User: Fold 4-hydroxy-tetrahydrodipicolinate reductase from Cryobacterium breve.
Amino acid sequence: MTTRVAIVGVTGTMGRLISELVDQTEGYRLHAGLDSRSPLSDMLGADVVVDVTLPGVSQSVVDFAVDNGIRVLVGTSGWSQARITTLERRIRGRDDTGVVIVPNFSIGSVVATAVSAMLARLFDSIEIVETHQAAKVDSPSGTAVRTAELIGLARTELGPVSAPHNDQRARGQQVSSVPVHSLRLDGVLARQDVIFGGAGETVTISHNTLSANAYRRGILLALDAARTAVGVTVGLDQVVDLGLGAPPTPPMPIVAIAAEPDLDNVPEIDADSEVFE
Assistant:
């Protein structure tokens, strides 16, 4: 059976890549390609909608799709845990739609995040440095947020990480108690380092994305999962069997541990994907 795919944000880099994969992969057919001028009604008739748009647009794309019983694969910035929880409540009990939200389509990135979550129980001092191209307007990245969430989840019984002097702005933004530092530089596509400190040693888990080809396999795996999705699934780690045991359950809403928590600025999930061109 052929799955009809509508891509919203088809003119962006990720949109073009997904369109190419749909055209090349047996079992899929491009039903519609929507850009910033297209009415959302163009997606009607699709089996799966792929959203690679803008944070301010993504919510309306998903709302329209689920209201019309279409399953969605989200690869767009702006999906905070609070918004995800609201979406879960909205489609709970429905079997005609579902949403898969993927912060990063790279298999290597998912592996690095999973290993970081495993190590989180062994080290109390943990920080994340994420680097992306200068054109990326939001921070921290969705991958960094997801990694910090899973580190926090792994440390549920141990408590927050050690983050001294966290009242200083230069110490980074805390996500699930983990300090996250964001760099935006020319000459870089995407890189993340998770640094663990212990007595007399450090361990660094690094992932470096060299080209958009790193996303191809993950996109196809996520598309396959979206075809039959029910409810809300967050993260490629919930789709891919890494052979590391059962993946953690989705985290509760993010809590920033700081001297004066600012719950109005909860970090948003960023799919590390593209915007309309």
